[in-house]
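REQUEST FORM: STRUCTURE PREDICTION
Request ID: SP-0412
Submitted by: Lab K.M.
Chain count: 1
Length (residues): 372
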Amino acid sequence: MNTYDYIIVGGGLYGATAARILSERGHKCLVLEKRSDVGGNIRDKWQDGINVHLYGAHIFHTKDDEVWRFVNRFATFNTYVHTVRTRFGDRLFDMPINLNTFREVYGIESGDQIDDVLAEEHGREYYDNPRNLEEKGVNLIGRRLYDMLIKGYTEKQWGCPATELPADIINRIPVRKTADNRYFSDLYQGIPTEGYSKMIGKMLEGIEVRTNVDFLSNRDYWLGMGRNIIFTGMIDELMDYRLGELPYRSLRFENERIATSDYQGQAVVNEADRNVGYTRTIEHKHFMTDGAQHVPFTIITREYPQQWQRGSEAYYPIRTTESERIYNEYVAMAREEYPNIVFGGRLGLFRYLDMDDTIAAAIEGMNNTGER
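STATUS: Completed
RESULT:
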């Protein structure tokens, strides 16, 4: 019937961006969302004056002028600057690793001495061609800091030894020779003052959205309703797992309301000890820069990585050489069977995307769809 030019499967950040771009080009779009609300994993909810990030901490940051202009059409951002501390034993250390971290561990005074520390570390262990995350991590910061602050956290997060993970994953963690403790050094950074859910809602204004709809349970009907499909879900599920399951990680969140105005002094504290079941504690009021500290209580969330299994939520893909191979085979298979489909988002592209990367990928993806 082709009632719609584009059916967008998934009302998260990629889907909302794609729908906005396509609708502004004059295309009739329909967004289908399996959950009861749009927003995907950046959804948040106001609870007694505190904006709670429902699916983990989300800080918008970007160097991309086009992406920044785009999101500012739908939200006003506060001036929050993200900092993180990592607990190892009974001490807290700056993360990302910077001069303060080296000072606390090695007792040095200046950034010039970091090279000497690393030279000594590398004299004991160094990899000319790092093959995995662990080897590259040791090259970046030395075995001592790597074992303290990276290894346990990473293996909890991904559910496998760091020696099995791609080396480039650790590129997300900067290392600085100054005392700059900002987690991100991007020019633009902040959090929507009214929240991400409001931002997504404004992006989808005037566009037809249907929630509580599982595209895959009635795919033949929806495929007949749209000339083109933007699919942001799991490609292996779309293809009925014919090549097997791709690997993902899931998450469990435990929220707690605590009768104190400040629990940990900042938004995020990581837990590097592998014997601590959760990876980080989020204190939501610290994301807010408009006076939430006057609220006499606080809300925290502890984040527990989980093994993904069918029926649970896939939060991010585990990208290895083998999973990339299977994913690419799925893409080839899907394009043969569904020639009018475009894949997007963290799951559809099988890539660990930040929010700005997601928007940039959606802009590029919609530019490449042509005027079908």
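NOTES: The longest strand covers residues 248-258.
Reviewed by: T.R.
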